[in-house]
Amino acid sequence: MATLVETGEAAIEDSTQPPRFARLPRPVILLLVLVAILCGLIAVFGPTMAAQATLNGFVAGGYIGLGAIGLTLVFGMLKVVNFAHGDLMVSGAYLTILLAWLGVPLPLGMLLAVTGTAALALATEKLVWRPLRRAGAGTLQLFLSAIGLGLVIRSTIQFFAGSQVRTLGANVVTSIAFGPLRMGTLQAVAFVVGLVAMVIVGLALRYTNIGKEMRALADNRALAEVSGINTSRIIDITWTISGCLAGLAGVLYATAIGSFNPNFGITLLLGLFAATILGGIGNAYGALVGGIVIGLSQEWSTLLFNARWKPVVGFTLLILMLLFMPQGIFGRTRRRS
Amino acid sequence: MSVDFWINVGVLAGIYGIFTLGLQLNAGFTGLLNFGQAGFMAIGAYSVGIFVVSWGLPLWLAFLLAVALAVAAGMLVGISALRLRSHHFAIATIGFAEIVRYTLQNAEFSGGNQGLIGFDDDWRSVNEWALSKLASVELDAYTQLPLLLAIWATFLVLLVTMELLQRTPWARVLRGIREDEDATAALGKNTFSYKLQSLGIAAALAAIAGFFVSLNITYLYPTVFDPTFTFFGYAILVLGGLGSYTGVALGSIIFWVLLEGTRLMETSLSAGQQSSLRFVIVGLSLILLSRLRPQGILGNRNELRAEP
Amino acid sequence: MSAPTPILEVRDAVKHFDGLRAVAGASFDVARGSITALIGPNGAGKTTMLDLLSGFARLDAGAIRLANRSIAGMAPHQIARLGLVRTFQLTRVLAGISVLDNMLLAAPRQPGEHIPSLLASPRLARQREARARLAAEELLETFGLRLKAADYAGSLSGGERKLLEIARALMTESSIVLLDEPMAGVSPRLGRSILDRIAILRQERGTTFLFVEHDMDAVMSRADKVVVMAQGRVIATGTPAEIRADSMVVEAYLGGLAGERVP
Fold first, then answer.
1. Domain that holds residue A131
2. Which residue has the higher pLDDT, A137 or A119?
3. Disulfide-capable partner of C219 in B240, C37, C83, C185 (CB 3.0 to 4.6 Å)?
4. How many angstroms separate the CA of residue B237 from the nearest CA in chain C?
């Protein structure tokens, strides 16, 4: 059914002539909208509050973007909507706690936790996804397996660690001041690390052979196979990268937010989906931009509404994106074949 | 553990049976991946509570209005999201269910996290009357028995209705859409309208289930309608079998006996750990069923769309 | 061959995909009761034209009239109800329901497909169903699928699927049937027998057929009229004999033939 509705959709999109302002490239429109909102916020709340919210938005955008890259790579290549992705992030955070409890120093523990999450993601490919693909599973089976996997990971963590709020045990009090703006030291570190990781992933996807093969595979599986790409190896690598980024995003979330419980993954997940769709399925750079847009929107919304509505902003953006721009900011309408 | 324990299992199996009938219609017979069923259930249950507590309507009228409201919500979701591809439709419906939950959790009208209470007086008087009748057969000690009977009577009526509906030319169009929407449209069927009807009926079934949830727990709070419960419904669906309404009843009974039965085991685990373990079991069964027997116990493999 | 009013009129039809002009101002008529072939090299816009005619793609410019009524902008099911049915290049049988159900789904005017009328008069729905069943069995007999009626359509062979899809299209009692490569993927013998049956059905029912086909022998021997498309335009129309003699057509084909399926 997927392909059918897709063609129907393309047909409808083709027929609607875009209004004049929409002739501008979509990313430019997005930038203009963001700048306009920022100006509005500065006018209403003053530059300090607006800038502080923007800063927080970029920090949130960092871990949402990182998480979304892993999600979009898998979605784009394997058409798996990985509902367990948020829970992989949670694994990263809780593996760090486990290692710290075992006496491993925090930075090393974080590194090992990221590696561990990557191994977990690879294990899900070997144990769940590859057998399902071989059996020719349909959309519903893939969905349910992903949901089941998420439940298993989350509940296993909950079984051992409990559902109470935990911290990484790092110093969360110190902060850095930029003029009138304040940013927790850990938040700043999380943001910088996130940014560096994204740049590395972006460069690696673009310039390394593996990155090129990954894109070829996501583009056209059959063609990639014919042209001699070792698809199962590339798929393994994709899962490893996806898990690695999820683990990192989880660790950074835990670092930046300070306290969390095993449900943070599922709460973040819809924001990740929103970022993924905003950026266009399978587009890693898009996911990054999408993550930052979602992060900014959520933090900016705290100026207007009570912070408890923050997640709703993510869901609402997700639904609006799906309805009005399902192909994303960088996507194009597809030609039906 | 007593008879009351098993009555409760029966209540849950019945409620989730009704809930899952809608998923069977959507996912099993129309090919629609509706993952927002818990949202419709929440709308149904909360509307009942709000109509009675805030508006002072009688419970039965509130029930009818709640079902109507859930159907309207289904239409709204359908009109906006049904043109999406299957993956996107599924994600959008989850987003819808989450918005419903957050709204109920944070809004004034729903009592926020405090929830709603005191809407079930009408039901209690029915319950009293039923217990007085049951006294003649010396079953009046089981206070949840009238609810169990009401739920299962409703469930069976709905089950038979859906089964009869399934044999009509109307349902043949739905199955056509499940197989190939374009080809069905090319034969002159307004596929969008049929998908909308399918979603509307599923929302109504979810609202009926939500009504019984509210009678069962007598106290409404948002976490009862966590979107995870949609996944319980899907576990029941694939357990019983895609494309079989009888399978829904069977799946729901097996699911809840297994899930609640774990409470009977003597373990040294804490309550939190036990509940985590139950979720691990649900998750594992979803993975294993999808892999090993995607058509479930009573499902038909030929009716399973293999194409992703 | 000498029908007074055309059942289908296409005027200056244009369709873009991502800036590509798949159909670039095509015009032609299909005479009522005719068998018309739509031919042209790959990429000429034939399938896009069928999509436009059946509502699966929307016209960017131009006009399409079905029995004197504009159908531009209509959804596929609306056009189908006006009496135009199509098949697809890659067969689309409904694999998870039975062969008979595939046929019954195509039966027109079934009140049982709408819940209100189903509840109002279940007897009418049953009567209609019984009549549809007779019609379906007759068509399945014609197409040699009678014995497979109870099987799931997914269990049919490629050729049988093709037959079922055509039989299903005829079941709709449409006045015009569009066939996208009815002979592709089936043995030449079966392909010819499909065309024979189409010719018979045209005689019996007066149904109009428009078909896209690459097999030139089949086109030239069975069609009353041929429409030739190249690069999104109609470059020639005429009887098979006229087309054969047209130098432009020969050129378009010779130009487009390299690396393409040879008829």
1. 73-167+187-262
2. A119
3. C37
4. 18
Rounded-to-integer distance, Cα A85 and Cα A142, Å: 14
Hey, is the C-beta of C112 within 8 angstroms of any chain B C-beta?
Answer: yes
Domain count, chain C: 2
pLDDT in tens, B60-83: 999 999 999 999 999 999 998 888
Residue C168 resides in a domain: no
Expressed as residue numbers, the domain containing C52 is 6-90+175-257
Three-class SS of residue C229?
strand
- Nearest chain A Cα to B84, which residue? A5
Q: How far is C125 from chain B (nearest CA, A)?
A: 8
Average the pLDDT over A190-209 and give the result: 86
Alpha helix positions (H), chain C: 46-54, 76-81, 99-106, 115-120, 122-142, 158-171, 188-205, 216-222, 240-245, 247-257
Contact C17 A332 (CB under 8 A): no
Does residue B277 contact residue B267 with C-beta atoms inside 8 Å? no
Please work out, in degrees rounded to the nearest 5, the angle formed at the alpha carbon of residue B285 by the alpha carbons of A162 and A125.
85
Q: B160, B296, B183: which is closest to B240 by C-alpha?
A: B296
With residue B289 as reference, give the H or E element that holds it.
helix B271-292
Judge: B170–C113 Cβ closer than 8 Å, yes or no: yes
Same domain membership, residue C99 and residue C81: no
Whole-angstrom Cα distance, residue B32 to residue B24?
10
CB spacing of A315 vs B228 below 8 angstroms: no
Nearest CA distance, A138 vs chain B (angstrom): 4
Query: A154-182: per-residue pLDDT in tens?
Result: 999 999 988 888 887 766 667 777 777 77
DSSP C44-102: SSHHHHHHHHHTSS--SEEEEEETTEE-TT--HHHHHHTTEEE--SS----TTSBHHHH
Q: pLDDT (tens digit, 9 = 90+) per residue, C160-218?
A: 999 999 999 999 999 999 999 988 878 888 888 888 888 988 998 899 999 999 888 88
**Total domains in the fold of chain A:** 1
| Range in A239-243, C197-201, C256-260 with the lowest mean pLDDT | C256-260
- Which residues of chain B are within 8 Å of residue A5 when distances are taken between CB atoms? 83-86, 181
Contact A159 B83 (CB under 8 A): no
Contact between chains at C152 and B302 (C-beta distance less than 8 A):
yes
- Please name the member of B169, B188, B302 whose beta carbon is closest to the beta carbon of C96: B302
Low-confidence spans in chain B with pLDDT less than 70: 1, 303-308
Q: Per the CB < 8 Å rule, is C97 touching B189?
A: no
Q: What is the share, in percent, of chain A residues with pLDDT greater than 90?
A: 27
Smallest CA–CA separation between A148 and chain C, in Å?
26
Tell me if C120 is assigned to some domain: yes
Interface residues on B facing C, Cβ-Cβ cutoff 8 A: 168-170, 172-173, 175-176, 178-180, 182-191, 197, 302-305
Residue A250 has pLDDT above 80, yes or no: yes
Same domain, C73 and C116: no
Is this model's pTM higher than 0.90 or not? Answer: no
pLDDT of residue C71: 93
Residues of B in contact with C94 (CB under 8 A): 175-176, 179-180, 183-184
